[in-house]
UniProtKB/TrEMBL annotation:
GO MF term list: 4 iron, 4 sulfur cluster binding; metal ion binding; phosphogluconate dehydratase activity
Domain Dihydroxy-acid/6-phosphogluconate dehydratase C-terminal: 401-591
Domain Dihydroxy-acid/6-phosphogluconate dehydratase N-terminal: residue ranges: 69-376
HAMAP family, per database record: Edd
One Gene Ontology CC term in the entry: cytosol
Family, per entry: Belongs to the IlvD/Edd family.
Species this protein is from: Parvularcula marina
Protein origin, superkingdom: Bacteria
Enzyme Commission number(s): 4.2.1.12
PROSITE patterns recorded: ILVD_EDD_1, ILVD_EDD_2
Name by which UniProt lists this protein: Phosphogluconate dehydratase
Length: 595
């Protein structure tokens, strides 16, 4: 199917605006490629250090033209999504040896969990951890002894960070190895109900903790469709996974087979590297996949930063125009009741990719791990007599409440929406909000942090229609933390019949809830954006249908901006990140410190 005209238009303009930056990137990669194999530019002393810890057999392979596979891992055994990676290097080493190659862990990256730091001071380091991960990836691969690489990562900032770092080594074939979601636990509706009861004071912490631990209960990613699982969708639709790898549970025979196959496959990718696997079409495919599945708002930051690492300039307007033509095909919590295991069982990524390709919404003008185009990503992996095989995915959804065909979508536009108006630019996860709540016009109540909001809620001061304006939460102010601490209370007020919304220069992410939230407001308050000029009582209109965010104030920009904010940068390591807060770009430029 030819690429849809609207999608092709976005691809063309990305290529045009990126002509110089992409050429610079390719020049840099070509210079690295011309250096040749490791024994062509590394001294004997360099190589001896690289081989010193290897077994005798691996040393022989490395000395006699065996290929070298570098592994960058985000393993830690504290976090459920990354704990499955503990034994993965052993599987990869064994798989590499069977084809005469050597696999080595080149280095590790940090992997922090937004679930652990949610509502805590440590959340202010979450977004910046992406750029730290990118630098850690570069340090791991800078030993420059590798013929190919594998990146082991799953969660929120880890995959984008690995990608950004790996892009600097675009002469190498590089694939991503997911770990998979945990098995299903407490149903999402029940989890939300328990959180609501706690917010109302009807149950205590013991009951709340019991419910949370029944939800997050084993190894693997959290099963709601937040940033972690949006990452896995994204890497699949960009062609950086083996087909069907995204949502296979950890510690299963199929997951082990896919992991082993990643090593042998990447070692056989001799004709192209990561530079060839990144194109304007690659990133438009990522955005289309995000819209079609109702994915995480965090990717309005990450995809821009990832694209920039490969020399491409992507904008929120590109997201908006692709949203206009991309139907919503999936409803996975918080956009529905199902979790990602249910999504996978209903047809999963193979079905979504096949449906989008029918209308040309995914471009096949791209290189993937499987070669040209995404046709192979409409297949699913299986074990047949112990061997890994692929066969065509389902040609229909197995559950119409979770997955729909492109001829009968849940909605005709994507799950994310760009909002514009006199408050600047922002984004909203419209797919999580019921149609009757997508337009809110109400007086503003201004807060400078979450705790101020929660104190006023507890005092009973917010039982009314209002728009919560939570500012000085942008990347330069305090690292742009997620503000999910507010979700249960806003949801309760909405359930009581009030018109409520959130407007913030902070984040909400893939777990954005049922209350309309205009997030990533740019310019942020610290940069004296319009949000810094809002006063209590100003009428704010958020219209997710029309794509507008307006303060109904005639003299808004003639007002002096409120100065400062109350953010402290001391404690839990925040004092170490002053340079990143000073250097970070705007949210609509990826909130990145590296470019």
């Amino acid at each position: 199917m030819p690429t849809h005209s609207a999608v092709q238009s976005v691809i063309d303009r990305i290529e045009e605006r990126s002509r110089e930056t992409r050429a610079d990137y390719l020049d840099k990669i070509e210079a690295m490629r011309r250096r040749g194999k490791r024994d062509g530019h590394l001294s004997c002393g360099n190589l001896a250090h690289a081989y010193a810890a290897a077994s005798a057999g691996d040393k022989l392979r490395l000395r006699t033209a065996g290929k070298s596979l570098g592994i960058v891992t985000s393993y830690n055994d504290m976090l459920s999504a990354h704990a499955p990676y503990e034994d993965v290097p052993k599987l990869l080493r064994d798989a590499a040896r069977k084809v005469g190659a050597v696999a080595q862990v080149a280095g590790g990256t940090p992997a922090m969990c937004d679930g652990v730091t949610q509502g805590q001071d440590g959340m202010e380091l979450s977004l910046f951890s992406r750029d730290v991960i990118a630098m850690a990836t570069a340090i791991a691969l800078t030993h420059d002894t590798f013929d190919a690489a594998l990146c082991l990562g799953v969660c929120d900032k880890i995959v984008p960070g690995l990608f950004i770092g790996a892009a600097s080594f675009g002469h190498l074939p590089i694939l991503f190895v997911p770990a998979g979601p945990m098995t299903s636990g407490l149903p999402n509706k029940e989890k939300a109900r328990i959180r609501g009861l706690y917010a109302e004071g009807k149950i205590g912490r013991a009951e709340l903790l019991e419910g949370e631990m029944a939800s997050y209960h084993s190894q693997g990613t959290c099963t709601f469709y937040g940033t972690a699982n949006s990452n896995q969708m994204m890497m699949e639709v960009m062609g950086f996974h083996l087909p069907g790898a995204a949502f296979v549970n950890p510690n299963t025979p199929l997951r082990e087979a896919l992991t082993r196959a990643a090593a042998t496959h990447v070692l056989g990718m001799e004709d192209f590297g990561m530079a060839e696997m990144t194109s304007a079409a690659t990133f438009t495919n990522a955005i289309v996949g995000l819209h079609a599945t109702g994915g995480s708002t965090n990717h309005t930051l990450h995809i821009i930063a990832m694209a920039r690492a490969a020399g491409y300039l992507v904008t929120w307007e590109d997201f908006s125009d692709l949203s206009d033509v991309t139907p919503l095909l999936a409803r996975v919590y918080p956009n529905g009741a199902a979790d990602v295991n249910h999504f996978h069982a209903a047809g999963g990524m193979a079905f979504v990719i096949s449906e989008l390709r029918k209308e040309g919404l995914l471009s096949d003008d791209c290189m993937t791990a499987m070669g040209k185009g995404l046709a192979e990503y409409g297949k699913e992996p299986f074990l047949k007599d112990g061997e890994l095989v692929w066969r065509d995915g389902p040609d229909r959804s197995l559950n119409g409440d979770i997955l729909r065909p492109i001829t009968n979508p849940f909605q005709h536009q994507g799950g994310l929406k760009l909002l514009t108006g006199n408050l600047g630019k922002s984004v909203i996860k419209s797919s999580a909000v019921a149609p009757e709540h997508r337009i809110v016009e109400a007086p503003a109540i201004v807060f400078h942090d979450q705790d101020e909001f929660l104190a006023r809620f507890k005092a009973g001061d917010l039982d009314r229609d209002f728009v919560a304006v939570v500012r000085f939460q942008g990347p330069a102010a305090n690292g742009m933390p997620e503000l999910h601490k507010l979700s249960p209370q806003l949801g309760l007020l909405q359930d009581r019949g009030h018109k409520v919304a959130l407007v913030t220069d902070g984040r909400m992410s893939g777990a954005s809830g049922k209350t309309p939230a205009a997030i990533h407001v740019t310019p942020e308050a610290l940069h004296e954006g319009p949000i810094a000029r809002i006063q209590d009582g100003d009428i704010i209109r958020l219209d997710a249908e029309a794509g507008t965010l307006e303060a109904k104030v005639d003299d808004l920009m003639s007002r002096p901006p409120v100065a400062g904010g109350t953010n402290s940068h001391d404690g839990v390591g925040r004092e170490l990140f002053g340079g990143m807060r000073a250097a970070v770009s705007r949210a609509d430029e990826g909130a990145c410190t590296l470019f």
